[in-house]
Amino acid sequence: MAIAMFAVLACCMTTMGDHYPGDSLDLPRVLHPVLVGDLSWGANRDEAMIIAVARDGTTFMTNKKVATSALASEISRRLGAGAEHKVYIRADARARYGNVKSVLDAIHSTGLKNVAFLAYQRRNPVTLNPSLP
Fold first, then answer.
1. By the 8 A CB rule, do 24 and 56 touch?
2. 3 state SS of 12
3. What is the pLDDT of residues 15-35, one digit of tens each?
4. Which of 22, 24, 99, 109 has most Cβ atoms within 10 angstroms of its Cβ?
5. pLDDT in tens, 56-75
């Protein structure tokens, strides 16, 4: 029985979430995540602008590889088509800051200021000093 439950769990876990070509993303883990407005609803919408930055610096938008130089025009096109005025960034925890910064620069060049980073909540908080409560 336990083996059957493990097989079902493993199958469900492999089909959950967004899948991007290339390496899978390992999102950063935070102790105290903040839901900003309708973040949980907005990020799950089909037309949400979610930009993924892989560990190697490859950028994806809606499961399609997009060059960082073409990102601003793609965002502007979607805004013109009535997309939400918010961009969600899924950056791999090991992605270089320069790659994420170039994505942020492309977003800000379109005039958008509403940007949210997607992260996982850390389940077991790490205490730096165990003697403190």
1. no
2. helix
3. 444 444 434 777 777 776 676
4. 99
5. 999 999 889 999 999 999 99
C-alpha distances (whole Å) from 38 to each of 41, 43, 51, 88, 90 are 5, 8, 18, 12, 17
* Residue-range domains of the chain with CATH: 22-121 (3.30.420.270)
Residue of 11 and 37 predicted with greater confidence: 37
One-character DSSP codes across 34-84 = ---TTHHHHTTSTT-EEEEE-TTS-EEETTEE--HHHHHHHHHHHHHTT--
Report which of 112, 63, 120 is spatially closest to residue 92, judged by C-alpha positions.
Answer: 120
Distances (CA, A) of 36 to 1, 42, 86, 120: 41, 10, 11, 14
